[in-house]
Design brief:
By secondary structure, this protein is α/β, with parallel strands linked by helices. It contains eight helices and ten strands. It has one domain: 3-Layer(aba) Sandwich (Rossmann fold), CATH 3.40.50. The two termini are 33 Å apart.
């Protein structure tokens, strides 16, 4: 990957909260990394270490105090609109309760001005791929949490983003539903090969999905280790966890994380 194109880069990024009438808190301290074309990278660390803060600085949702953020070599600043080739999947499902599954998924295409018939074709295709067929005209109130999150994911993926930022999108799901979402995401990623930065607190999830795992220290968040995950692809989200290779790498990274859990 080292010779491939860098799609996401942070250079010495610092984030401090507070000031004026509130105590200053250093949340992120000089974080630098690159994510290359087609890489799936997980960002993991103790609670409060700045994982989501880093993701939101990359997305231009919050300002940083020092450093630089680049997407495809272009500086990203707070408040600027992200490039159209970047998608963001939030921690909480962001489906519109007044729109059906079909209308939720097609929302971004509507905003883009795509022809109505073309939208319908694209929506029908991705509904079948995601296993949501039969629920096209259901409203979110009628769906489980996992299905709503699936709708939110499909609403982003239907726009065919080349870069995907994901903030613990499956964190609130039960284990079985989470494994279903892992299988779905892996199938889509194997076909589309998006560049992904995935924030999670779940080491098993990070190992199942990613090519690399960046471990952050306890606050202030710094990069402690950058692990390669070299399990063969395509991966099965269930059987992978039964292998010796998985157990060995899990133990190595868990030890690294455990040191930071003790500090925090």
């Amino acid at each position: 990957m080292s010779d491939s194109v860098s799609r996401i880069e942070t250079r010495g990024v610092v984030k401090q909260f507070g000031g004026l009438r509130h105590p200053k808190v250093l949340a992120v301290d000089r974080v630098s990394f690159q994510i290359h074309e087609g890489e799936f990278v997980a960002l993991i660390g103790p609670s409060g270490c700045g994982k989501s803060t880093i993701l939101n600085m990359i997305a231009g949702l919050i300002p940083f105090n020092e450093g630089n953020v680049f997407i495809d070599g272009t500086d990203i600043y707070f408040g600027e609109k992200l490039p159209r080739n970047v998608g963001y999947v939030f921690q909480k499902d962001t489906v519109f309760p007044w729109r059906t599954v079909r209308k939720n998924i097609g929302y971004g295409l509507e905003l883009s001005g795509m022809d109505k018939e073309a939208i319908n074709v694209s929506v029908e295709e991705i509904i079948k791929r995601s296993g949501l067929d039969g629920f096209e005209d259901a409203f979110p109130l009628m769906l489980s949490g996992g299905m709503r999150q699936r709708v939110a994911l499909m609403r982003t993926l239907i726009l065919k983003p080349e870069i995907l930022l994901m903030d613990e999108p499956f964190g609130a799901l039960d284990t079985h539903t989470k494994l279903i979402m892992h299988k779905l995401l892996l199938e889509i990623w194997e076909k589309e090969k998006q560049t992904v930065l995935f924030v999670t607190h779940d080491l098993g999830e990070a190992l199942t999905l990613s090519d690399r795992i960046i471990v952050l220290s306890a606050r202030p968040g710094k990069i402690k280790e950058d692990f390669k995950v070299e399990f063969k692809r395509p991966r099965d989200a269930v059987t992978l966890r039964e292998t010796n290779e998985y157990s060995k790498l899990f133990s190595e990274i868990w030890h690294c994380l455990g040191e930071e859990f003790n500090k925090s």
